[in-house]
Amino acid sequence: MDQSELSPARRRTFLTVMLAGIGAAVGAMFGWPVLRYLSPRSGADADARVRVPRDKVPVGGAHFFEFRGRPTVLLQMRPGEFTALTAVCTHLGCIVKWQQNKGEFLCPCHGGRFSATGEVLGGPPPAPLQNFPVVLDGDQLVIG
Question: Which UniProt keywords apply (predicted)?
Fold first, then answer.
């Protein structure tokens, strides 16, 4: 028997080890994003507050910013009345767009519509946009 030849049992062991290694790598590659998606976010920034200069939000307009790691929008529909809402559609998580001429939000993905207070006006969204408290502190708006 030639020394360079491997027995069928050794070949089978080698292939089993290689396939197990490749399977583990592929499993980790697909499993890690799923695990990150299903695991809760860190609560370290749960009490975080954001300050936005009052003049950044025009009357009838919107100012988009990030709050607690998510897109958020600040509205001033009437002078001195501010509303902070999440800018993430409750249907599939797309970012809503403010339509100033209509005074409502539109989700560009599937046509969901929300009022300036976050209520669902039409389309597939199952729930309203989340509201955040807004406090006026001098010339700053404090969200959170």
Answer: 2Fe-2S, Disulfide bond, Iron, Iron-sulfur, Membrane, Metal-binding, Transmembrane, Transmembrane helix
pTM beyond 0.90: the answer is no
Q: Judge contact between 68 and 107, C-beta under 8 A.
A: no
Dihedral-angle region of residue 138 (phi above 0 means left; psi in -120 to 50 means alpha; beta otherwise): left
Domain boundaries, the chain: 1-42, 49-143
Strands annotated E in 88-137 = 97-99, 104-106, 113-114, 120-122, 131-132, 134-137
- pLDDT tens digits, 114-123: 999 999 999 8
pLDDT for 90-121, tens place per residue? 988 899 999 989 989 999 988 999 999 999 99
Q: Helices (DSSP H) in 1-134: which residue ranges?
A: 8-38
